[in-house]
UniProtKB/TrEMBL annotation, chain A:
Annotated Pfam families: BPD_transp_1
Topology in membrane: Multi-pass membrane protein
Record key words, sorted: Cell membrane, Membrane, Transmembrane, Transmembrane helix, Transport
InterPro entries: MetI-like, MetI-like_sf
GO CC, alphabetical: plasma membrane
Domain ABC transmembrane type-1: 74-284
Protein's name according to its UniProt entry: Sugar ABC transporter permease
Membrane-spanning parts: 21-41, 72-97, 109-133, 153-178, 220-242, 262-285
Superkingdom field: Bacteria
UniProt-annotated location(s): Cell membrane
Record organism: Streptomyces sp. NBC_00119
UniProtKB/TrEMBL annotation, chain B:
Single biological process term from Gene Ontology: transmembrane transport
Cited InterPro entries: BP-dep_ABC_trans_perm, MetI-like, MetI-like_sf
GO cellular component, one term: plasma membrane
Localisation per UniProt entry: Cell membrane
Keywords: Cell membrane, Membrane, Transmembrane, Transmembrane helix, Transport
Protein family (similarity comment): Belongs to the binding-protein-dependent transport system permease family.
Pfam families: BPD_transp_1
Main localization, broad class: membrane
The protein's name: Carbohydrate ABC transporter permease
Organism: Streptomyces sp. NBC_00119
Transmembrane segments: 12-33, 68-91, 103-127, 139-155, 193-216, 236-260
Biological classification of the source: Bacteria, Bacillati, Actinomycetota, Actinomycetes, Kitasatosporales
Amino acid sequence: MKVGRGGARRPLTRALPLAPSLVLLLLFLAGPIAYCAYIAFTDLQLTGQAHSSFVGFDNFTAAFKDDAFLNAVWLTLVFTVLSSLIGQNTLGLALAALMQRASKPVRTVTGAVVICAWVLPEVVAGFLLYAFFRREGTLNAILDWLHLPTQNWLFTLPILAVSFANVWRGTAFSMLVYSAALGEIPKEITEAAEMDGAGGWRRMWHITLPMIRRSIGTNLMLNTLQTLSVFGLIWVMTRGGPGNRSQTLPLFMYEQAFQKSMIGYGTAVALLLLVVGSLFSLVYMRLLRSEA
Amino acid sequence: MSSPRTVRHRLAADAGLLIVAAAFVLPLAWVVLSALDAHANLQVKIPDGVTLDNFDAVLTPDITFTPLLNSLLLCGGATLLTVASAALAAYPLSRYRSRFNNPFLATVLFATCLPITAIMVPVYALFVQVNLIDTMQGTIFFFAASQLPFAIWLMKNFMDGVPKELEEAAWTDGASSFQSLIRIVLPLMGPGISVVTVFSFVMMWGNFFVPFMLLLTPEQMPASVSINDFFGNRGTVVYGQLAAFSIIYSTPVILLYVLVARRFGGGFALGGAVKG
């Protein structure tokens, strides 16, 4: 076994280069997380911040009795399932599968367009989709041209509109993950299945999907984590409205903390979001480990 | 040897992709066409005549130059801090065996996935207490910290790819670890460093929530926040100008992405994607 210079005699000087990162991470990441865990149990308010007292689990019990909170939990679920699990994931896989067979120019153009939507800053994506879904926007113009009924999407179905926006913005990631995964399947396997007379769908279901299941797991995990923390996109498109009909947890948290000045309560919601995120994060790490 | 069946398959695949591409391109077409249209509204339409008036109107210090300069200061400063700290941290993690390495890397990977959005309220409360609220340096520090876990993770993997033997010669000549990091390891991992740099910068450039929460003074706001002024403070929304500004603000990240993707292929895209 090769031991680096200095052996085990100077472990501290060796660890010295870690210092700047450690300081930054402790002060600006671990610190706020610890502080989050603390103020979630207080009644800290934006005004008169000197007097905050420990209130135990009050914020959490209050949350689960709060219809607005339950509404936000429900909408977050809808948003995540629609845009991440169903939308980005399925569309990404479909695009990757089609790209394997398509001609090169079509593949290149589609890839460029989908990736462009993904590279744009979040707020810009929000404005583009806002313009698309507005009453006077492009979607209604097209529906009108096809003689289909139009409506004010951001008012009648706001959560659907923001979910579509998130699909538009996030599908490129799944597409890239699945393109890489499909590219790694040996040609002989698909060819053998074709010889045996397995049709396209059966090949997909019995051969392709089982072979890329690890990528599916990773992709679902990362998509979900990303979708859980979407704020700017929804904020730009609807501000969580009308009313609170597109108010997912991050927007609810923001409203409670800043528009209603209930920092303690808002942080309790943030802590719940953080715990859910951590659980997903742990599952993701397990997946990576079993992959190695 | 393309049989009629493969051709049919290819045509079907092409048609499917083109339909999706058409749906995806509509919002993009809106922003490009509206920026060139003197009478832009919310619909995709061919402009009556191409004009650069919208760009002229937004290219003022107030609307474009100051916010972009703020973005550059914030994201450039934080990226420098992130890349320098990550390169230093990656060295002992990649070069020395220690029983702390694995737990540390596991924690870093775990932190990579945490929803940063969730901790913004406590970060705000904390920044108010230590007087870092509404300061560029506070926002830069937080940006750097939030991007660090992923940067360390990437940097360590890239550094593992540089063979240790190359350094050993330098060591026998009496160079310190720090010297060999600067003179030998880092120059050999140019692609890795550019990927980490571009990725960190692109993520921060597009980030809205962090500066929205941590900065208060309008003069300090980066473009990701100031773009909302097109709706609030200036009366009726001039969509053509909003579109023109969106293009100016998005161009740097698109160029950076193209540049890096060209040189390093899909690997960057995937690495970059982890945080989506």
